[in-house]
Design a protein that fits this description.
- There is one protein chain.
- The two termini are about 10 Å apart.
- By secondary structure, the protein is of the alpha/beta class.
- Helix 4 links the parallel strand 3 (about 70-75) and strand 4 (about 105-110).
- The strands form two sheets. Strands 2-1-3-4-5 form a five-stranded parallel β-sheet, with helices on both faces.
- It is about 40% helix and about 20% strand.
- It has helices spanning about 15-25, 45-55, 55-70, 85-95, 120-130, 145-150, 160-170; strands at about 1-10, 30-35, 70-75, 105-110, 135-145, 150, 155.
- Helix 3 crosses helix 4.
- The structure holds flavin mononucleotide (FMN).
- Flavin mononucleotide (FMN) binds near residues 79 and 81.
């Protein structure tokens, strides 16, 4: 099973990228592909730029990567209560290829931040809007206080309750 995982951020040391990759590793039999949004950078979307550029190669590549996956794990970084500009821009361009960005793929939607809110606001936005973009959301989870709950050295959750909750929803991707 091909699982595409990424942090919805362009931070090089993204905590959400770490969480997404770890969550994908909990999916039985997963062959994991991790995307870095820096490989999909484009000018900020505008109708005029769309007229000029059409469907940029980066957006086409992102759409194709989703299409080729059997399941998708996204962990959302929160900037000022919402999506990072990097993710939102890529998403906007991709939605102009096809509004069904997620192509009915089974998905886990996660989020984390160093603070106690665990990027819950952006996760709520992502979960609420998912049906409009053909996402088959199998589960969602916010991990608060990332550095208290995630063992960065060994790249795994150290909070047993959260680990169980994540394993439970990861199992739903193959059910
Ligand atoms: C501009 C900016 C705004 C932020 N706003 C929030 C926020 O609203 N909520 C939050 O929990 N963390 C916020 N943070 C902290 C991020 O959660 C933190 O930088 C985290 O590492 C981002 O995830 P990433 O490492 O996966 O990119 C903000 C950080 C920046 C730089």
């Amino acid at each position: 099973m091909k699982v595409l995982a990424f942090g919805a951020t362009n931070s090089a040391n993204s905590i959400n990228k770490q969480l997404a990759q770890y969550a994908a590793s909990l999916v039985a039999g997963a062959q994991i592909e991790v995307l870095d949004l820096n490989d999909f950078e484009m000018p900020i979307y505008s109708p005029e730029r769309e007229e000029q550029l059409g469907q940029p190669e980066q957006a086409q590549r992102f759409f194709k990567a989703i299409g080729e996956a059997d399941a998708i794990v996204i962990s959302f970084a929160e900037h000022n209560g919402s999506y990072t500009a990097a993710y939102k821009n890529l998403f906007d361009w991709t939605s102009r290829i096809d509004m069904k960005v997620f192509q009915n793929k089974p998905m886990l939607l996660l989020s984390t931040s160093p603070g106690p809110g665990g990027a819950g606001s952006v996760l709520a936005s992502a979960v609420n809007s998912a049906p409009f973009f053909a996402a088959d959301v199998k589960g969602s989870l916010s991990i608060p206080s990332f550095y208290d709950n995630f063992d960065v050295e060994n790249q795994r959750l150290k909070n047993d309750e959260l680990k169980q909750a994540l394993s439970d929803i990861a199992g739903k991707l193959t059910a």
